[in-house]
Amino acid sequence: MSHNPPIRWALLGAALLALTACGSGSGGGGESDQVTLTYRLWDDQQKVGYEKVMAAFEKANPGIHVNIELLPYDQYWTKLTADAVAGTAPDVFWMTPTQFPEYVTKGVLSPVQVDASKYHQTVVGSFTYENKLYGVPKDWGIVGLLYNKDLFKQAGVEMPDKLTWAKDGTGTLLDTARKLTVDEAGKHPGEAGFDPAKVKTYGFASWNHYQTQWMNWVSSNGGKLVDKPFGKYAFNDPASVEALQFGVDLINKHHVAPPATQTNPPTGKVTDMFKAGKVAMFPANNALLPFVAPEATFEMGVAAMPEGPQGRSVNLNGLAEAVYAKSKHPKEAMKLAEYLGTQEPQKMMADGGYVFPALNGLSQGYVDYWKAKKIDVTPFEQEAQGSTFPLPITTGFTGFETKLNQIFNEMYLGKLTPKAAADQAVAEGNATVK
């Protein structure tokens, strides 16, 4: 995930003030004029689905043509910021919870008018600012547990009905992970002669990845990432620190997860290790399925994330269809965004196996798509009906992210205590909140 240089944002604020006087109006002429809208996304797989969606939109709206623009994720935000500075951003584009605060507080986004009660409420909350919704809820992805059924069978281990964890190491998660972790001599952690330096297969992947890892531990232990939306970071409280300690202990104390030297970002190889059959249980967002499933040489299962001392609380990351506030075709841009939030397009994207739609009641198509590929994704869907939380929604996160990873890399390596790492990260993070 790239972050935007602060100087760009300073320019953006000034440029938008200058632009407020212009850029309105629907671009001239009468109803017969063909209006071309630009729609920007970053996922080449979803682009295939959106080509069908836009064809349906254009058929219903013959006066509007939609040009789909694909940019790789690492270029997407740099280009979007530059375009917003120049006053040339696309009419409708994808927006994430972590980028949203920067764009909405600088006046880049238009408020939208949809019935918010029809969408997943974590997604709605992720794009709400000063009681207004600034993006049509598009979809959601949620963190669950992918697991290697072949490794479970080889070890003679059943996936428990419910995985649980506690700070003292009790619970079915660690118990199961121990049975699945084996060294070259066939020994498990806790057995005499077990060699943590020569592990053949790890039971679990614990690593420095905030979305699928430590933020879920924190939330499931009653800790808080931020004190309120658009507020300050708060994950250095005792409950959060306990949760961070648990994630690190899985590696350095219990030896059921690969050492951080192999997994720390930016060179993390965890996905590759899972695909290669070296890790049995792998927390991942369902959005990773199209990239993992085709390459897996084993039968793959999906389980719900473990329950912590305060129950299960899982990251749900939604996207929104954002409308550029300075679009030259505001009426048509809004029409497109609102259409993308309706049943027909959201069902098309779900049925194609691309995403869980943000619109409630349409998940079955996504479930059926993956069922045909022998993967039961209902645990993802069930989790979404329970306690979920968004990524931190506050200004400055994208600039803070690199520093956060650097500090937590040291923690996962055992060079910083979780308390010291959390205190340092919270102080650094809060210095970026405007």
Automatic annotation (TrEMBL):
Q: Keywords for this entry?
A: Signal, Sugar transport, Transport
Q: Where is the signal peptide?
A: 1-23
Instruction: Please give the chief subcellular localization of this protein.
Output: other
Origin: domain of life? Bacteria
Locations listed in the record: Cell envelope
Under Pfam families, the record lists: SBP_bac_1 (PF01547)
Q: Which InterPro entries match?
A: Bact_solute-bd_prot1, SBP
Gene Ontology terms: cellular component: cell envelope
Q: Which residues form a coiled coil?
A: none
Which family does the entry's similarity section mention? Belongs to the bacterial solute-binding protein 1 family.
Q: What is this protein called?
A: Multiple sugar transport system substrate-binding protein
Q: Which organism is it from?
A: Nonomuraea jabiensis
